[in-house]
Amino acid sequence: MKKEEEEINMKKILSIIVGLILISTITSCQNDKKIIENDLKNLIEFTRNGGYKSSNHDKMAAITFEAIDEGYKKMSYKINKTTEENKNKIIVNITIKYPDLSGAIEIFKNKILEERQRLLKSPNPTVRSDDEMIKLTTQFLKESVNEKLNDPNLRYFEETFDIVYVKHNDNWEMQDSPQFNKAMLFNLHFNSFTQN
Q1: pLDDT for 131-147, tens place per residue?
Q2: Residue 191 is assigned to a structural domain of this protein
Q3: Is residue 175 one of the residues assigned to a domain?
Q4: How far apart are CA 42 and CA 24, in angstroms?
Q5: Reading across the β-sheet that carries 76-86, which strands appear in turn?
Q6: Whole-angstrom Cα distance, residue 112 to residue 73?
Q7: Which helix (H) or strand (E) holds 92?
Q8: By CB neighbour count within 10 A (0-12 exposed, 13-18 middle, 19+ buried), where does 36 fall?
Q9: In the predicted structure, residue 129 carries a pLDDT above the cut 70
Q10: Gap between the Cα atoms of 83 and 34, Å rounded
Q11: Which of 57-61, 67-71, 103-107, 168-172 has the highest mean pLDDT?
């Protein structure tokens, strides 16, 4: 009888240990999922709040972020679901609603062409320094974006897609996501600027 009681007690202890391991595993998964969700939220909020200003970007990236800054006020997002595919891969399903600023590039092109024409017609065209050109480019791009943002017919995109995070050496890294990049840059395509 004592042996049977010991076996029952051992089974209870083993059940408790297995239960604790399962709870620990589930908690760990939940923690990783929460870490990823918070990382994504922090990235979006960092960008929305002008955090890009403290980052080291090339000049074109800095100009772009400064110009589209107002667009972030009209952007919204919702994390729909976060799933752990395996211990090294987590997928975040997100919906982002953002203004379509693709038309701002055409406005920007026209401003550049108008400035070029003005300089060509000027009897004393001035040569601008690199800093002056960057300032003028930023001004033109910002004006173009604001013109588009203030357009009463401004269109919005609402897209739902997955963002994949992969664990490398105990660190979670967001994989490249063209849809996320498109949303965060409001559908601006600078390659269209070089066409025509």
Answers
A1: 888 788 888 889 999 99
A2: no
A3: yes
A4: 26
A5: 76-86, 89-99, 156-168, 171-174
A6: 26
A7: strand 89-99
A8: buried
A9: yes
A10: 10
A11: 103-107
- Residue matched to tokens 């919204």: 76
Q: What is the pTM of this model?
A: 0.73
Residue 9 CA to residue 28 CA, distance in Å, equals 28
* CB count in 10 Å sphere of residue 195: 8
> Could you say which DSSP state residue 72 is in?
G
Tokens 């920007």 sit at which residue?
Answer: 108
DSSP E strand boundaries for 57-137: 76-86, 89-99
User: Could you read off the pLDDT of 45-57 as tens digits, one per residue?
Assistant: 888 887 766 666 6
Question: The tokens of 67 are what?
Answer: 């110009």
* Nearest by Cα to 68 from 185, 192, 151, 190: 185
Provide the domain limits for residue 1: 1-185
In a domain, residue 190? The reply is no
Instruction: Give me the mean pLDDT over the 8-15 stretch.
Output: 46
**Separation CA 33–CA 40 (nearest Å):** 11
Task: Work out how many domains the chain is built from and give that number.
Answer: 1
Checking if the pLDDT of 102 tops 60, the result is: yes
196 part of a folded domain: no
The tokens describing 32, both together, are: 């990783």
What average pLDDT does this structure show over 96-113?
92
